[in-house]
């Protein structure tokens, strides 16, 4: 049965840069999901094929900290792609930041570590790659546009880590990284200009300098998110895109509020290292975090 017959529309949640997001009900079990509706009218054939390949990889990216992807459907008559995924009922981090700002309170450090650890676990999964054999079986042939391969694995880079793409569940505990892979296919060459819906606060310096994407670019953006969770504002801000680019490339930022730990400062600094070859990887950061959990007396 096509997806469209399996789900019932429960109404619009919001509009994103590429189309609408709707809440939908799966008739078989009355579970709520989300449908992202994207028009591919302005995409080239190559981009559409790349998007379809990317979805197959997304399906393999199953992880408790990654928004679950159910599948997609091509609505040819409307030139639309409908993507079905898990519904995250606790809002996203941009809403959490806004809530604390309005209350004039800081986000508790424990919650910030919780968010960091869970996003890192998601990135660890992606950056260490999806099993190539499984993916190639899915394709039945080699995909048109090959994602980067390392040691027989497809490395997946998110490329658009920002508070709006990190979701909370209403259990008050679980964090899910969303919009995986979509950024890569839906973006065109002119990234900085294209991010016009929001200011590109989280863009890594190497991407500004037109260097190829590397997994550690996600770590930079995660560092910006961590900073923003502490300071309730991004580390790099400016009135114009040009000055923002200069600030990001210089990589200097104000200190986070004094009540946060030294360990938090170290962690943010390790993510916000301008030279990508010096920056911490997801694997290294995860080791540091697990060290913290085993040694609660660390501070
Ligand atoms: P953008 O393209 O700007 O990132 P999105 O299309 O991702 O926007 O999202 C639009 C709106 O839908 C946002 O308010 C976002 O929080 C919400 N949203 C997106 N995906 C989900 C999801 N899986 N669960 C709940 N809300 C979601
Ligand atoms: Mg989004």
TrEMBL record:
Signal peptide: none annotated. Transmembrane segments: none annotated. It comes from Ambrosiozyma monospora (Yeast). Its EC number is 2.7.11.1. This is non-specific serine/threonine protein kinase. ATP binds at residue 36. One of its GO terms (molecular function) is ATP binding. Residues 7-294 form the Protein kinase domain. The keyword Signal does not apply. Belongs to the protein kinase superfamily. One of its GO terms (biological process) is filamentous growth.
């Amino acid at each position: 049965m096509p997806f469209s017959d399996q789900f019932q529309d429960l109404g619009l949640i919001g509009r994103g840069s590429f189309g609408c997001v709707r809440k939908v009900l799966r008739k078989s079990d009355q579970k709520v999901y989300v449908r992202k509706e994207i028009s591919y009218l302005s995409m080239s054939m190559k981009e559409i094929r790349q998007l379809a390949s990317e979805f197959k990889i997304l399906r393999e990216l199953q992880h408790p900290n990654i928004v679950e992807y159910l599948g997609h459907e091509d609505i040819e008559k409307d030139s639309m792609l409908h993507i079905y995924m898990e519904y995250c009922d606790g809002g996203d981090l941009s809403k959490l930041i806004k809530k604390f700002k309005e209350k004039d309170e800081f986000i508790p450090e424990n919650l910030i570590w919780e968010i960091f650890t869970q996003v890192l676990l998601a990135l660890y999964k992606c950056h260490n790659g999806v099993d190539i054999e499984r993916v190639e079986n899915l394709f039945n042939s080699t995909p048109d546009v090959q994602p980067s391969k390392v040691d027989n694995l497809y490395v997946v880079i998110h490329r658009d880590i920002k508070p709006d793409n990190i979701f909370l569940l209403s259990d008050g505990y679980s964090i899910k990284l969303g919009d995986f892979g979509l950024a890569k296919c839906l973006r065109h060459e002119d990234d900085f200009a294209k991010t016009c819906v929001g200011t590109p606060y989280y863009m890594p310096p190497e991407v500004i300098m037109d260097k190829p994407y590397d997994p550690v670019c996600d770590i930079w953006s995660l560092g910006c998110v961590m900073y923003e969770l502490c300071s309730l504002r991004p580390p790099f801000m400016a009135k114009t895109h040009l000055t923002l680019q200069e600030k990001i490339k210089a990589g200097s930022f104000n200190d986070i509020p004094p009540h946060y730990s030294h360990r938090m400062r170290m962690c943010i600094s390790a993510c916000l290292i301008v030279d990508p070859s010096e920056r911490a990887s997801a694997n290294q950061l995860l080791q540091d975090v697990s060290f913290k959990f085993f040694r609660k007396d660390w501070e």
